[in-house]
Amino acid sequence: MPRVSQDHLDARRRQILDGSRSCFARFGYEGATVRRLEEATGLSRGAIFHHFKDKESLFLALAEDDATRMADVVAEQGLVQVMRNLLDESTGVEEPALGADWLGTRLEVSRRLRTDHEFRQRWAQRSELLTAATRARLQWQRDSGNLRDDVDIDVLTAYLELVLEGLVSHLAMGLPADHLASVLVLVEESVRRHRGR
Q1: How large a percentage of the chain has pLDDT more than 70?
Q2: If I label 91, which of 5, 15, 150, 166 is the partner at 20 to 30 A Cα–Cα?
Q3: DSSP state of 149
Q4: 75-124 pLDDT, tens per residue?
Q5: Residue 193 three-state SS
Q6: Using an 8 Å Cβ cutoff, are 51 and 13 in contact?
Q7: Is the separation of the CB atoms in 20 and 60 below 8 Å?
Q8: pLDDT at 8 over 90
Q9: Under a CB-based contact definition with an 8 Å cutoff, are residues 32 and 55 in contact?
Q10: Which has more pLDDT, 23 or 125?
Q11: Pfam families, per this entry (predicted)?
Q12: 55 vs 34: CA distance, rounded Å
């Protein structure tokens, strides 16, 4: 019997993550039943859970995958760009760097962080990736002379992460997004070094 190639296993895992992303985004964690996950991925429960121990492991892998993709955007363009991508997605302009339904996954992560202590502990280990990428990008910007130097990098990192969480909450509540692109310009300007300083 021929062995399944690693490329095939990786492609199957990607198929499961991509299909389940839309399922979790549409129905939430509790509503993403095994039957719905089967429909969204086009695979049987056996195939899904061959790759992931259980639904929580699948959701954590999905959230971690999104966090890794976000960290890649942060490394190249900064955390404000991640927020722009989120905003574009919420208003119907899909950003390929994050993919469809990322906002839904992020909203579900935020909800579970608030209500599920065990999930919060497991997620804490994974969320450091984004914080580290943001800190590294800010340090690079400072070293390049583009970032204000009167505020500690850790404070700027926390500031941008709070803005991100505020944006996610705003979009989750369905509030108008009309002026949020201008708000993100203001946020970006607030951390930029102005030559007169």
Answers
A1: 90
A2: 15
A3: S
A4: 999 999 989 988 876 555 544 444 446 777 788 888 888 888 888 887 88
A5: coil
A6: yes
A7: no
A8: no
A9: yes
A10: 23
A11: TetR_N
A12: 8
